[in-house]
């Protein structure tokens, strides 16, 4: 008897459960579950007002404590790719940048050149560590030379014959405009010593074939070019590693010559110095032209 009384009630409950849930209740339930855990959904005007007040308070705290934080970001700090695209000036170069580029890593102790000992800091794990306290002054001295040559309308050649150095020498030569040149593939033997056969007699008479300064990023692979520069009395600047005799170039820069980052950093710093020299030459030429026009106007 009791079961017969409950059966109609169960049927009614089953019919109610098969009814469709309203769409608005489904969307509200989805919105409530989609919110992050611990945050209430913004459903009423009071919720939005509370949210705006909390956001304003957070912004006020950020503005108040921002003066106590760091102002260094990705844009104003040094990045590895900056040595190629945005090189620093010689006066702004630091030992940290040289170390980050790997300039302090030399070759094995067993192949260290005896003449390189003054530039060696020590040996660690069988590898010669280059003393960057010698590298930085040598690089700044070379930068002064490049600036002086460019300011006196001299031509400068960047030589980097390894495949990974091609972009570095091209960008470095481009910063010197018409005074910059580069050799990225191969130095042709006799370029300086047999210049008449290479360029022609008329070209040698009309143009400046012999450069005023040559910068070698990998001097050990360009010994023939260094000999030609010595025979033609052309000053040379080069990156010398621990297995290289520093005396092969006139202005040695002790650093890791197998590191692409190091070569890009050094070439960029020297090219920036050359760009400063080019700007100085243009300024002097403009002053000279102004003075000349003033004198002509005064005589007339």
| Low-pLDDT regions | 1-37
- Please identify the oligomeric state: single chain
CATH-wise, what's the superfamily of the domain at 93-287?
Glucose-6-phosphate isomerase like protein, domain 1
CATH domain class of the domain at 93-287: Alpha Beta
* Strand elements, count: 8
Rounded average pLDDT: 84
The CATH architecture assignment of the domain at 93-287 turns out to be: 3-Layer(aba) Sandwich
Structure overview:
- This protein is of the alpha/beta class and 300 residues long.
- It has a domain at 93-287: 3-Layer(aba) Sandwich (Rossmann fold).
- The chain has eleven helices and eight strands.
- The strands form two sheets. The chain has a five-stranded parallel β-sheet with strand order 5-4-6-7-8, with helices on both faces.
- Strand 6 (213-216), helix 10 and strand 7 (236-240) form a beta-alpha-beta unit.
- Helix 6 packs parallel to helix 11 and helix 7 (166-174) packs parallel to helix 11.
- The chain starts with a helix and ends with a helix.
Show the helix and strand layout:
Blueprint: H1 2-17, H2 23-34, H3 45-65, H4 82-85, H5 95-100, E1 105-108, E2 120-124, E3 127-130, H6 132-151, E4 156-159, H7 166-174, E5 180-183, H8 195-199, H9 201-206, E6 213-216, H10 223-231, E7 236-240, E8 251-254, H11 260-299
Parallel strand pairs: 4-5, 4-6, 6-7, 7-8
Antiparallel strand pairs: 1-3, 2-3
């Amino acid at each position: 008897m009791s079961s017969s009384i409950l059966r109609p009630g169960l049927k009614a409950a089953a019919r109610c459960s098969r009814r469709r849930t309203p769409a608005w209740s489904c969307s509200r339930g989805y919105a409530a579950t989609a919110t992050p855990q611990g945050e209430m959904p913004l459903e009423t005007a009071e919720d939005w007002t509370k949210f705006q007040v909390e956001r304003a308070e957070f912004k006020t705290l950020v503005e108040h404590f921002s003066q106590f934080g760091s102002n260094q970001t990705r844009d104003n700090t040094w990045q590895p790719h900056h040595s190629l695209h945005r090189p620093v000036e010689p006066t702004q170069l630091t030992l940290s940048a040289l170390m980050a580029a790997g300039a302090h890593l030399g070759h094995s102790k067993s192949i260290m050149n005896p003449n390189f000992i003054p530039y060696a800091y020590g040996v660690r794990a069988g590898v010669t560590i280059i003393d960057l306290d010698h590298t930085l002054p040598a690089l700044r001295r070379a930068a002064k030379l490049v600036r002086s040559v460019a300011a006196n309308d001299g031509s400068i050649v960047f030589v980097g014959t390894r495949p990974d150095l091609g972009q570095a020498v091209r960008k470095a030569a481009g910063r010197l405009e018409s005074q910059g040149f580069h050799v990225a593939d191969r130095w042709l033997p006799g370029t300086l010593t047999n210049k008449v056969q290479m360029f022609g007699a008329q070209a040698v008479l009309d143009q400046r074939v012999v450069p005023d300064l040559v910068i070698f990023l990998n001097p050990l692979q360009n010994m023939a070019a260094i000999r030609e520069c010595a025979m033609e009395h052309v000053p040379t600047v080069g990156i010398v590693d621990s297995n290289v005799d520093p005396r092969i170039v006139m202005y040695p820069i002790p650093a890791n010559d197998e590191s692409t980052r190091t070569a890009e950093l050094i070439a960029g710093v020297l090219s920036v110095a050359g760009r400063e020299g080019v700007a100085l030459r243009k300024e002097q030429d403009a002053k000279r032209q102004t003075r000349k026009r003033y004198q002509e106007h005064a005589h007339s």
